[in-house]
Amino acid sequence: MPKPMMHLAQFLVHGPTYHSVAMWRHPRTAAAGYDWTHPELYQHIARVCERGKLDMLFFADLNYISDTFSGSLAPAIRNATQAPEHDPIPLLSFMAAATTHIGLGATYSVSHQHPFHAARLWATLDHLTKGRAAWNVVTTLNHNQSANYGEEMKPTDERYDRAHEFMEVCRKLWASWDEDAVIMDRDAGIFADPAKVHRIDHEGRFFKSRGPLNVVRSPHHGPAILQAGTSGKGRDFAAHYADAVFAIQPYIAGAKALYDDIKRGAAEAGRPPSACKMLFGVQPIIGASRAEAEDKQAEHNALVPLEGGLAILSGHLDFDLSTLPLDTVMAHRTEPKLQRMQTRYRTATGELLTLRQVAQNHGQSVGLPQIVGTPADIADQLEVYFDQVGGDGFMLSPIYCPGAIEEFVDLVVPELQRRGRFRREYAGTTQRDHLNQDF
């Protein structure tokens, strides 16, 4: 009986660092001669990943530079901890022009926008990519982002209640043009049938919108929807709307529990569990031998500055970790904001970690497990994780760029294909085609 196959996506940021704080200064990044600001780099990555038949390219995005650690912007700027980050949305069309199949996703926060603008933007991108657009729907992560918009950060429940209504308005707007509204009868002089274009007249707790959208029905009827929150409210949002969830779970047991919970939530929301794919983040480190890969891992991890790890962890927790001693045991802390990342505070065997250790690990991979070895070793580790969790696939994050992405596509993808664990050809042309491909 054939084994189930994996979905694979490539994680990107329109900036100098991804999950690795060391990425911008890694010798291989520097030696490659590419600049993260050059759009040609992203077209190159898109072509490489499409050659590897990956499901999608996925851009994370933040709209702030964090001053959470020590109350200063300096640590984040000095260490390039998720700063700077240029807007990834313009890159999607640029990358679409260089490819024909691979999905193109980006993060776009709903916290400080109106649904009409978002619905128009993403319907347009869905047209420009011919159905390959994917929107990672997020709410504000950090008080710094709210401050950039002149607002106070809202409580989690309110942010997600607002996000639910935001999506409902977008869905109504995307459906405001019937599929057959555009008739383009040149002889009669009728472009579209007015009876098939509808106002939505939405009035809710957070939004009003009259409609209709001034973008015709798009290939996906709106983009594929991605989600990356793992709070209770985030999981509920994913269960209702997400075509795929990007999750960070350092250990298999936690990944299994999250996988089962999201699938159960999708079923309770009246959706087939398979409609919401789970993509778990991993950081591959590949060598011609296991020793070489371990040397590459050690080289990379040694480049991560402790201050950078503390700055990025403070931003993700929205808590100033400079107020705590470095030898404090993180699992023993009782502050409410420090309860969000309990999976980072212990090793796989349950050993408790100090703030110094947690911050150093966070600067290396933001909690993504590092999978290290030869291409066959990497394939082995992916199979174990995949089979024990239950699927559906992985979000790949490099330690240097360019170079690491090409290594995975050229060395690991063929190994997975030989094992029957990854597609050899695309079965369709849209993002949902790839995510829903029946393996």
From TrEMBL:
<dbReference type="InterPro" id="IPR011251">
    <property type="entry name" value="Luciferase-like_dom"/>
</dbReference>
<dbReference type="InterPro" id="IPR051260">
    <property type="entry name" value="Diverse_substr_monoxygenases"/>
</dbReference>
<keyword id="KW-0288">FMN</keyword>
<feature type="binding site">
    <location>
        <position position="61"/>
    </location>
    <ligand>
        <name>FMN</name>
    </ligand>
</feature>
<feature type="binding site">
    <location>
        <position position="160"/>
    </location>
    <ligand>
        <name>FMN</name>
    </ligand>
</feature>
<protein>
    <submittedName>
        <fullName>Monooxygenase</fullName>
    </submittedName>
</protein>
<dbReference type="InterPro" id="IPR016215">
    <property type="entry name" value="NTA_MOA"/>
</dbReference>
<feature type="binding site">
    <location>
        <position position="231"/>
    </location>
    <ligand>
        <name>FMN</name>
    </ligand>
</feature>
<dbReference type="Pfam" id="PF00296">
    <property type="entry name" value="Bac_luciferase"/>
</dbReference>
<keyword id="KW-0285">Flavoprotein</keyword>
<dbReference type="GO" id="GO:0016705">
    <property type="term" value="F:oxidoreductase activity, acting on paired donors, with incorporation or reduction of molecular oxygen"/>
</dbReference>
<keyword id="KW-0560">Oxidoreductase</keyword>
<comment type="similarity">
    <text>Belongs to the NtaA/SnaA/DszA monooxygenase family.</text>
</comment>
<feature type="domain" description="Luciferase-like">
    <location>
        <begin position="46"/>
        <end position="387"/>
    </location>
</feature>
<dbReference type="GO" id="GO:0004497">
    <property type="term" value="F:monooxygenase activity"/>
</dbReference>
<keyword id="KW-0503">Monooxygenase</keyword>
<dbReference type="InterPro" id="IPR036661">
    <property type="entry name" value="Luciferase-like_sf"/>
</dbReference>
<feature type="binding site">
    <location>
        <position position="107"/>
    </location>
    <ligand>
        <name>FMN</name>
    </ligand>
</feature>
